[in-house]
Amino acid sequence: MPPVRPRKLAKVPFVELADGRLQGVVSSGSDIGRVYVSSIAAGTHAYNCSTNNNRPCGGLYGAPCKHLQALAAEAVLQYGLDRVARYLRVEVPEGAGLIGCLDGSHEPAPAAMVFSRFLRHLAYLEVPDTTMPIPELHWFPAEGTVG
Amino acid sequence: MLAVQLTALLGGEPQGTAEALALVHGFDEALVHGLGRLAEERAEALDALAGAFAATPIGERLAEAAAKVASGSIAEEHLTALAGGRAALLGAVHDALLAGLDAALERERAPWQAAPAPEADGAGNPMTDAGNPAAGARSWLRELAIAGWRGVDHDLVSAVDQTVEGLLAVPEQRRLAVLLDGLAAELRACCPVGTMDRLPVRRWADLWTRALLLAQGGAAGAPQSAGTVSGRLLILGVDVHEHGTAVQFQVHGVLEPADGGRARLVRAAVTVAKVDTITGPATWKLPNRHRMLLAALADRRSLDLTDMPLLDSGDLVWHDDRAVVGGPADPFTTARLTLTGALAPAAPPLDRHPVGIAEPVLVEGYRVTGDGSFDLGGAVLDVDAGRLPACGPLTPQLVAGSSACVGLVRWDGGRWLLQPLAVQATVKRQTVEAGTGDWALGPTDPKVVKAEARAGDAVAVLRERAGRLLRR
Questions:
Q1: Domain with CATH 2.40.50 in chain B
Q2: Cα B133 from Cα A114, distance rounded (Å)
Q3: A137–B270: do the CB atoms touch at under 8 Å?
Q4: Which fold has domain B225-338?
Q5: Span A63-81, mean pLDDT?
Q6: Separation CA B333–CA A48 (nearest Å)
Q7: Where are the residues of the annotated region Disordered (chain B) (predicted)?
Q8: Structural domain total, chain A
Q9: Distance CA B376, CA B373 (A)
Q10: Of B337, B381, B452, B465, which residue is 20 to 30 A from A110 by alpha carbon distance?
């Protein structure tokens, strides 16, 4: 499994390919306490964007909002275009952008679950370190950067 | 490592290795398709695995387990017995390989002394305590075995999330937590596994087996305390392990005891939890409370230890307040002067698997071949360039241009490999040294510093988000 590539996290702190969706959390540009939960389903490419309290994003006028665009762009940075396209089952012609190749429509999706996965993700930063050896990690060598 | 030593090492694999690995492979193939639908030839593979132990004290249990599983009655105890058999085979391969390596290097290894069995703890026994995350782990591993890798889907992978969360909260279960989390992430990334062309069959079976054994509870076969040590720690290098949510910095060094006793090979590890977006040089920010250890790595200095706990596996249990940074200590000098006479530690039974073989050596006087291997007077040692961590300055180019290398000898994919930890190379007619720990206090290469600055501080961003969103 290739390691993810480093990217700026300020705008989109969380991106994942899970539960049959490209999903993640986008920080609001205007309110530091607010985040948007954005997702694009694999196969159907149905998309959704709402606040973590399930209020619909005001930017969804029949097309993906800027949060969804940021999510797709950061996912490509993190996983590479190939892996994201394969997961979403979308053909992206040479030179085209991922988001422009999706043909889904807006459909409600569970924001609470994605948000709780984000909180679980953040909770790793609060797990204390350990100085007991973990021999099992020899199966997981740190690899060099790719690309 | 001298040419004659390398020639001895490459002289052939220990007798019985191929047979043992063939039995392991049979079991691993059964896990691919699942024990729930066991074709006849796979049932025979389980029988063969059990048969190898017929004359041993666990022979009867294994034979019963193989028969029960083949008949479709797949209980945890049967899987545990089979996992134990598989682990014992690989343990034997480990022992034979390590004995061959020790003989080639003329390295003396301390004998393993079984610690007295830990007392059974009636109240909190993980074997019986319902709701214990270790029980959740065993039950998930059983479901994996029944479904087989080909049958793994998102729901089955996600079923372990809560168990991992529970395990992470228990310090004694960290090994199991980190292992399951790594396995689950790989399976998730490969979902649905049924459509994959090729599977890492041996690897996943290795992880499954170790997880099932760790989930048995108790400390049987795990390292035990071997008291405390004081003296001077000379660092050879740092081996870095990483998956999405954990990184381990494992320092290899030579301890010169203050009482004038024999020098010994030791390790000291720090493992921190992280997320997948924290990678490369930024990972060094995570263990920052261990200032002395990081400073010694970055500045190539020794450490003076006072009453540092040691395990019988040769692992120091690092307490940064019991260490003080000492004088300059170059890893090449350390390797030249101390590696030959140092006593190597025994491997605890549970850890005996070829993947755990990582013996520090100094290699010099080689010619780098076209494919990047080291040719030592006709004997060729492959270099594992895949194990050069992104958090340090060592690159395949530096290794290819090197004239001396401190590294770890490993055994992977049926051959011996050298994993570089530090190299001496000539760049623009100047001798330079680079090691995996050079950036422990932050990158020293201006280009990397700039790139890191551009990417922003991932750790700080996520900590800010955690602080604002987690406790509301």
A1: 225-338
A2: 23
A3: no
A4: OB fold (Dihydrolipoamide Acetyltransferase, E2P) (2.40.50)
A5: 93
A6: 60
A7: 111-132
A8: 1
A9: 10
A10: B465
**Does residue B27 sit in helix, strand or coil?**
helix
Searching chain B, which residue's CA lies closest to the CA of residue A129? Answer: B272
Residue A146, pLDDT score: 42
Size of interface A-B (CB pairs under 8 A): 183
Quote the CA–CA distance of B9 and B101 in Å, as a whole number: 6
Mean pLDDT of chain B: 92
SS3 B232: strand
B375 is written with which tokens? Answer: 């040719």
Residue B429: predicted pLDDT: 85
Q: How many CB atoms lie within 10 A of CB B45?
A: 22
pLDDT at B315: 98
What residues of chain B lie within 8 A of the CB of A33, using their CB?
468
- With a cut of 80, say whether residue B130 has pLDDT above it: no
Enter the ipTM: 0.95
**Alpha carbon distance A47, A70 (integer Å):** 13
Is A7 inside a domain boundary? Answer: no
Which residues have C-beta within 8 Å of that of residue B4, sequence separation ≥ 6? none
Contacts of B449 in chain A (CB under 8 A): none
Alpha-carbon gap, residue A124 to B267, rounded angstroms: 25
Confidence of residue B123 (pLDDT cuts 50, 70, 90): very low
Gyration radius of chain A's alpha carbons = 17
In chain B, residues with a C-beta closer than 8 Å to the C-beta of A8 are 454-456
Closest CA–CA distance from residue B63 to any residue of chain A (Å): 28
How far A20 CA sits from the closest chain B CA (Å)?
8
Shortest Cα–Cα distance, A11 to chain B (Å): 10
**Cα gap B245→A142, rounded to integer Å:** 12
Examine residue A92 and state whether it is found in any structural domain, yes or no.
yes
Host domain of residue A48: 14-139
Answer whether B94 touches A (CB < 8 Å).
no
Q: What was the pLDDT predicted at B204?
A: 98
> How many angstroms separate the CA atoms of B231 and B310, rounded?
12
B242:A20 CB<8 A: no
Tell me the pLDDT tens digit for each residue of A98-119.
988 988 899 988 888 899 999 9
Residues whose CB falls within 8 Å of the CB of residue A10, separated by 6 or more in sequence, listed in order:
A27, B456, B461
Check A32 against B468: CB less than 8 A apart: yes
Task: Please answer yes or no on whether B389 and A120 come within 8 Å at the CB atom.
Answer: no
AA letter at B139 = S
A88: which chain B residues are within 8 Å (Cβ-Cβ)? none
Helical packing angle, B76-105 and B59-70, nearest 10°: 130
